[in-house]
Amino acid sequence: MIKRSPLVLGNKSLKDVSDDICAPLERFPSKGWVGMFLGAKTLLLFYIVILACVVGIGIGLLGVTHPVFWGTMIVTFVFWIGIGHAGTLISAVLFLFRQKWRTSVARTAEAMTVFAVMTAGLFPLLHTGRPWLDYWLFPYPNQRGPLWVNFRSPLLWDVFAVSTYATVSMVFWYIGLIPDFATIKDRAKNKLRKSIYGALSLGWRGTAKNWSHYEMLYLLLAGLSTPLVLSVHTIVSFDFAVSNLPGWHTTIFPPYFVAGAIFSGFAMVVTLMTLVRIGFPEFKNYVTLDHMEVMNKIIMTTGMLVGYAYASEFFIAWYSGNPYERFAFVNRAFGPYAWSYWIMVSCNVLSPQIFWFKRFRRSIPVMFVVSIFVNIGMWFERFVITVTSLHRDFLPANWGMYQWSWWDTGVLVGSFGMFLTLFLLYLRLFPAISIAEVKPVLHVGYDTEGGHH
Amino acid sequence: MAAQYTKGIAGIFLDEAKILKAANKMRESGSNKFEAISAYPIHGMEEACGIKRSWIPYVTFVAGCVGLAAGLGLTYWTSAVDWAVNIGGKPFFSLPAFIPIMFELTILFAALASVGALFYACKMPRIDPPIIDPDLSCHKFAIFVPHNDSIYDETKLTNMFKELGAVEVKKTEY
Question: Which of A116, A163, B15, B148 has a 20 to 30 A CA-CA distance from A412?
C-alpha cells in the first residue's frame, strides 16, 4: 500500500495547532515583517500618488493612444484577476475533490484571491477615464430615459462577473474565518482584542448543530465558487474573444485564459508561501515541502497547458488560411514586440520544466525563482495578447506602437504595493492557516501510536 | 444580559473519542436539547447527536432559481421592453448574450442566501455569547444540557459525565 505522508509534521496536539497558528498575531511584529511592511506601504503611497495623477490629469499620462487603446491597466487587470483564481481553485475546487493537503494553504491562497481581486478591480474602473461616473456601469433606474446598460457587451458581463466573484470569494473567505476568530477571541488576554475578534466571530459557538450547518454551507459555497471561478476568467477572455480583431477572436481563449490564471495564481501562492515560511518558521510544520511540491507539479502541468495553447493558436492561425490572422501571429513572434513574446515563452513554458526533477521541486530557492519567472511571464502573456494584437491590425496606415511611459511603470509596480500591504496586514491580523480545518486532518499519515509511516 | 441565556450543566472532555461516546450516550438516554460543543467539526458527531441533514441546500436551490429568473427578467425587461435600443442589428431579446448575466446572478443570489440561512440557523450574529470554557474553541470539548431538557437532573448528569470521562462538570449558562 502507498503510505500517505503526514499533512502536519511534528506530532502536534490540538492546543499546539491553535498556539502555533495564533502566534504571529499575538507577538510583537518581527523586524523582517516591519521592514517589508514599511516597504510595501511606501510603495502603496507612491501608487496612490500615481493614481491620483492619472485620475486628476487624465488617462493620457499612460501610453494608451492610437492604435493601442488598451494598455497597462487592462494588462495588469487581467494579470491580477488571474492571480486570484488559484486561491479559489485551492479553496473550492480542491475541497470538492477532497484533497486534504489544501487545508493548510487554503486560507492564505484565498486571502491572496481577495486582495488580488481588489487590486485588479481598480483598473477597469480607472481605465474608464472618468471614474467618478463608474456607477453608470450598473443597471439602475435613471433620468436619462432610463437608458439601460448594454447587456450584449462582454465588458458589461465582466462587471457582473468580477463583482460577483469579489463578493462571493470575500464571503467564502469570511465564513472560513468565523470559527478561527472565535478561537482568537477566547485566547485573547486584552479586552480590546477580545471585543474586536468577538465581533468578527459573530458570536460563533461551535455546537454540533452549528457545525453541521456550517459544513453544509462550506460545501455549497465551494460548489458555487467552482463554476464561478471558471466563468470569471472565461468572461474576461470574452472581453477579447468576442471582438473581431485577429489575435483576439479565437475560440480557444476561455480554457486558455483559465489555465493561465491557475498557472499564474499557483506561482503567486508559491512565491508568498516561501516567504511566509521564512517569516513564520512555526508554519513549516503546516505548509510542508510536500505541499510546495504538489503546487510545483500543478505549476508545471498548467505551464504545459498554456504552452500547448500558444502552439495551438499558431497552428490555427496558419490552418485558418486567413492572411490577417496569420500576420497577427507572425508579427507576435517576429515583429517589433518579439522580445515580449519570447520572454513569455521562456518564462511560462521553459522555466517550469525544471520541475521534472524532484530535487528542484522540493528546493525552496529554485521554486521561488521559478515562481517569480512565471509571474513575469504571465504578465507578459497578457501584454502580448493585448498590445501586439492592437498595434498592427488590418490597415498598415493604422499601425503604431504602445507609447509606454513611466506612469505605466508606476501603475504596474505600485499595484504590488497595494497587494503586499494588504497581504502583510492580513498575516498579522488574521490566522494565516485555518485552525478549525487543520485540526481534523492532524492524524492523516500517522499510525495509531502517533508515529510516522 | 445574562437572563436571556439558558442555564444548565456542562461536562468538559479532553478527548474526541470521549465526546463522541458521551454524545451517543446522551442521545440514547433521551436528552432532546443537549449541545455538543467542539473547536472543529468532528467526524460522526451528527450521527451521535442525531442531527438531521442541514436544510440550507433547499435555500440555495430556491435562491439560485430566483437569481436566474431575476437575471432573465432584468436583461429582458431593460433590453426588449422598457427602452429597446437597436445595437448592431442584434435582436432586442438576445438570449445567448444574456446568459452570462443570468449565470452570475444565479451564483450571487444562491451564495448570499445560503450565508443568510447559516446566520439564521446558527442565530448569528450574536453579541457576546456566554463562554462555558475558553478552551472549547481550542482543545477541549463539552456536552451542555439545558435546565429545560427532559432528563435534566444535576446529580445524575454530574455522575453520568464523570463516568463518561469528563475532567470537569460545571453549572453554567449558554
Answer: A163
